[in-house]
Q: What sequence folds into this?
């Protein structure tokens, strides 16, 4: 019965925590600008995050080793340190965007000053990490993030052309057929892939498996959670593309603020839909802020060999606990400086894709090594998919910064 409950809660928290501010922004704008034609990227990204989250969880269950331990072991000190610095820079930027997004949502709900709400958001997130166990952090923010299913309901009620939606899952170019749109289409394809396959998700997932004391007996549990949770979560991403195409695109609205997304739901369901959307986003962004903060602290502790884990008290793992507090404070200070959270979102998503190959290559090598993983090593399907997605993420990483420059951050 406990395993069934763990499976059920694991899937629900995976669904509730699937969409964060970067994915929300890029899915809505992808739909608004290009209709359903980028849905195939959502499908590709979903398979990719399943492949690597499953590997990360399996390695953690069998070897009790998280991602950044593997990166240092296989990439070496110098290359590993570069990856660590890049990953934690992306973590801080991503967390800053989530904190800014939460403050904007609170401002819509309460009408209080924006900068005050940034400070209050920092305090509330710090208290949540300090006081709640790892298990309850996952459950509170993941389960309350499920309020975002109101976006899925809104997309269905809007009655899209389902044949056109199905066609969107076929790889294609910009619907206009105009070569001038190709750069912008490519930018959104890379950013959308990155927002779904954000590297912090694998860092947090593997560390969480160790926090939950998974063993080789939990490999099937890991497989079901990573597959079912990601597939169900990706339905929210699909719904956001549909809402962007049906609601924002025809009105020429760009989703530059989280409130724009809530407005699209309010059109279908009125006031209650508006508040469900606002609170759903609030907890989803909060969960992402906590995950990125803890991921950064996990990365540092695992790379340098410090004691780590939410199950350890501050006096037992002082550097780990100091690390997450400092990273969260840096994120809040970045937003307090006056920078636009949406600008931070765009840069964090683009720079995140650059780190993907450096994160996933060591993981793939370990998961495929039969001397290390024995009977739990990758099968042929996991190897084929692993190498295929490594090639895809490498191509996306090479294209990301040129596309960012050529499109002026997606504004061309």
A:
């Amino acid at each position: 019965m406990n395993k069934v409950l763990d499976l059920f809660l694991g899937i629900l928290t995976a669904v509730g925590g699937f969409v964060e501010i970067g994915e929300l922004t890029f899915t809505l704008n992808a739909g608004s600008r290009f209709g359903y034609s980028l849905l195939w990227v959502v499908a590709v990204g979903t398979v990719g995050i399943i492949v690597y989250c499953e590997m990360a969880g399996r390695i953690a269950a069998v070897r009790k080793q998280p991602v950044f331990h593997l990166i240092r072991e296989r990439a070496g000190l110098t290359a590993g340190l570069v990856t660590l610095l890049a990953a934690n820079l992306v973590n801080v930027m991503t967390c800053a965007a989530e904190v800014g997004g939460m403050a904007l949502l609170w401002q819509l709900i309460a009408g209080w000053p924006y900068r005050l709400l940034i400070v209050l958001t920092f305090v509330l997130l710090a208290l949540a990490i300090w006081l709640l166990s790892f298990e309850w952090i996952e459950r509170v923010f993941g389960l309350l993030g499920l309020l975002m299913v109101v976006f899925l309901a809104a997309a269905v009620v809007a009655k899209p052309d389902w044949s056109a939606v199905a066609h969107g899952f076929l790889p294609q170019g910009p619907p206009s057929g105009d070569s001038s749109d190709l750069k912008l289409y490519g930018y959104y394809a890379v950013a959308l892939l990155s927002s779904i396959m954000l590297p912090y998700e694998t860092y947090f997932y593997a560390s969480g498996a160790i926090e939950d004391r998974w063993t080789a007996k939990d490999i099937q549990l890991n497989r079901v959670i990573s597959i079912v949770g990601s597939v169900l979560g990706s339905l929210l991403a699909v719904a956001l593309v549909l809402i962007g195409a049906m609601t924002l695109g025809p009105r020429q609205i760009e989703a530059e603020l989280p409130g724009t997304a809530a407005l699209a739901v309010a059109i279908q369901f009125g006031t209650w839909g508006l508040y469900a959307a606002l609170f759903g986003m609030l907890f989803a962004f909060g969960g992402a802020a906590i995950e990125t903060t803890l991921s950064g602290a996990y990365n540092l502790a695992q790379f340098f060999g410090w004691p780590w884990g939410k199950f350890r008290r501050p006096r037992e793992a002082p550097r780990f606990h100091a690390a997450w507090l400092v990273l969260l404070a840096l994120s809040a200070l970045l937003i307090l400086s006056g920078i636009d959270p949406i600008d931070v979102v765009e840069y964090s998503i683009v720079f995140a894709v650059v780190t993907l190959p450096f994160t996933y290559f060591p993981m793939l090598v370990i998961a495929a090594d039969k001397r290390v993983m024995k009977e739990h090593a990758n099968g042929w399907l996991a190897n084929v998919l692993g190498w295929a997605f490594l090639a895809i993420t490498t191509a996306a990483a090479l294209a990301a910064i040129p596309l960012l420059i050529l499109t002026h951050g997606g504004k061309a």
Q: What stands out?
A: The first helix runs from residue 2 to 16. The chain has one domain: 8-406.
